[in-house]
Amino acid sequence: MKDYQLIDEFVLTERIGGQTTLVIDKNRKSDLRIQRWVMDQLKVAPLATTDFVSLGDLKARRDKLKQAIPHAVAGEASERWSDVQRKMVGYLALAQQMAASDIHITVRRSVRMAIIEMRIHGESEVIDELTSEEGDSLVSTLFMSMCDVRIPPTFDDSDFQAGRVDAKFARSAVLFGARYQHVHTVDGVHVVLRTIIDDSDRVPTLEQQGFLPEQIRLSHQILRQPQGLVLLTGPTGSGKSTTLRVFSNLWLARTRNRKRLLAVENPPEGRIAGAIQTPVIDGNWDKNNAAVLRSDPDAILIGELQEINALMASIHAAHTGRAVLATLHTNSAAGALQRMEIMGADRRLIADAQMVIGLLSQRLLPVLCTHCSIPWSEKASTLSSETREYLEKYCTEPGICSPAHLRFHNPAGCDHCCQTIALTGRIISRGINGRTAIAEVIRPDARFTALWLDHGTAAVRQHWINSGGISRRIHLLHRLNAGLIDPLFGDEIVPLDEDELLAREVPHV
Predict the structure, then answer these.
(1) pLDDT (0 to 100) of residue 62
(2) What is the pLDDT of residue 284?
(3) Which end of the chain has the least Cβ crowding within 10 Å, N or C?
C-alpha cells in the first residue's frame, strides 16, 4: 500500500464506456512498483489495456476525468480511503460544483445533531444533517487524517485549531486546497473550511468580475508601473484573493511571461500559472524576504498582510525596485494607508506616491436572476414609505441611475436560477445567479499622499471623488440601474448614503 501511495501521481485508471485503461508515465514503465500495480489491476479487470504517455499527458487526462465526473476520484487512492473520508471529499466536491466559498460543520451535542452548511453566493445554505456522533467522527477524521498541516498536531475540540487539507483530498474534488479552522462552542464544535478553487487555467477577467471600464483602464495603468506596492483591500470573503490572481495574470500577460513573478504566501491561496509560488517557512518573513529578493524576481506577490512582519516585507520589497501585490483587511481603499500605520509602519514610508502605487477596495454582491427579478413598478407599493423615500433619494443620480430601473429579489426563484442539492433535495439559489464585485480603484499621486499626511483618510477620499474617482456607491448605482442587484441587498453591503455621510467629515474639501 505504501508503494502505491508513492506512485499515485504516475498512474491513472480510466473507466470509460465499459473499457478500462491503465494510463502510466512512460518514463516509469520499468519501475517494479508500477509493474506490480499493473498486475494487481489486471486481476480486477483482465481486459484492461495499458497506455504509456508523458507525465504531462497523464495529468491532462486526470484533470479531464475530474472535470467530467467532479464527484469521482481519479486513480486508485480513493479505494483505500475510509467511508468518512469519502463523505468529506464528497462535500468538498459539492462545494466546488456550487462555487461555495466555505463549508461549515456545526456539531451540537445537546440536540444530537450536526449541520453541514455551505456559503453560496454569500449566503449560508443547509446542505446535510447528521447525528452529532457522525459529526464528531467527520470533524476528527478531517483534522487528523485529512489535514497535512495541523496546529496544534493533536485534535482537541475544546481549543482553537487550524489546519490545511492535504492536496490529494482537495485535488480529488477539483479544488486547489482548503483551510481548516475550528472553535469550541457551548455544546460542541464549529468548523469552517475555506475552499480554494483552482482557476489558474481559466482566470476570470476584470470585466467578468464586474469592474467598470474606467476602473479596468486604471488597473492597467497601475500594473504598468515597474515598482511599488499594490494593495487589494476588503473584509474576508470579498473576493480579494481572486482579484489578486487576476492582477497577477494581467501582469504576466503584459510582460509576455518574460518577467518573473514570485509569490510568497502563508499559505498559498491558489495556483497562479506562470508564477513561482513558495510558502512562508515557520512564519519567518525576514528569512523569506531575504531569500526572495536574492531569487531575481521582477514582481512579488505577498498574499495577505496579516501582521507587521509581512507588511514590512512588502514595503521593503517595494523599495528595492519591484512591483509588489498584496491583500489587506481594511474597510476602504484610502483607509489602507491608515491601516498600515496602525499596524506599525512609519507614515513617512507609506506617504510616498512611488511606494504605494495602487489601492483597491472590493465587496461582492449577489446578482439577481434576470428571468424572475421584480421591477420597481411592482415592488414600490409594497415598500414602507421610509424605504421608498430612501431609495428614491439615494438611487437618483443623473446619467447614472433612476429608481424606475431598479429591480428586486424574487425569493421564490424560477427554473433558471433554482438549484437542487442531490443529498437532501433542498432548493437553493432562489432568485440569485452568482455574485459581482463592487469596487473602488485608486492610483495615488503626490497630491493624494500629501493630503493624507496633512488631513487624514476622509479628506483624501473626498479629494479623490472630487477629482473624478468612482466610489463604491457610484459603482453600485451603475449595477442597480442595470437591474443586476437588489438595492436593499446592495445597501446592506455598500450603504447608499455612504458618500454623503463620509463627505460630512470634510466640509472644507
Answers:
(1) 80
(2) 65
(3) N
- Which of the residue ranges 55-64, 132-141, 219-228, 297-306 would you say has the lowest mean pLDDT? 55-64
Find, among 255, 243, 252, the residue nearest to 219 by Cα. 243
Q: Where are the beta strands (DSSP E) in 137-227?
A: 147-151, 161-165, 175-185, 188-197
pLDDT tens digits for 9-37?
888 888 775 678 899 999 988 888 888 88
Query: Domains of the chain, with CATH numbers?
Result: 2-76 (no CATH), 81-197 (3.30.450.90), 206-364 (3.40.50.300), 365-435+470-503 (no CATH)
DSSP, collapsed to helix, strand or coil, labels residue 244 as helix
- Write down the pTM of the prediction: 0.81
Nine cell digits for residue 208: 467578468
Distance between CA atoms of residues 102 and 95, nearest Å: 8
Q: What is the pLDDT of residues 57-114, one digit of tens each?
A: 888 888 776 655 444 444 445 668 999 999 999 999 999 988 899 999 999 999 999 9
Q: In this predicted model, what pLDDT tens digit does every residue of 283-294 receive, in sequence order?
A: 666 667 677 778
Sign of the dihedral through C-alpha 133, 135, 140, 141: positive
- For the record, the C-alpha cell of 226 comes out as 515597474
Q: Which three cell numbers stand for residue 321?
A: 525596485
* Mean confidence (pLDDT) of the chain: 89
Identify the CA nearest to 9 among candidates 169, 178, 201, 168.
Answer: 168
42: Cβ contacts below 8 Å, ≥ 6 apart: 48
Q: Which residue has the higher pLDDT, 358 or 204?
A: 358
Whose cell is 456539531? That residue is 107
SS3 178: strand
Spatial strand order in the sheet of 261-265: 276-279, 261-265, 299-304, 323-328, 228-233, 356-368, 432-442
User: SS3 for 314?
Assistant: helix
- Return the closest-CA partner of residue 220 out of 245, 251, 243: 251
For 381, which DSSP code? G
Does the pLDDT value for residue 1 go beyond 50?
A: no
The answer to whether 89 and 81 are in contact (CB under 8 A) is yes
Interatomic CA distance for residues 179 and 95, integer angstroms: 13
Compute φ and ψ for 55, nearest 5 degrees: -60, -35
CA distances from 475 to 31, 212, 296, 362 (A): 59, 7, 39, 11
Using a 10 angstrom Cβ sphere, with 0-12 exposed, 13-18 middle and 19 or more buried, the burial of residue 202 is exposed
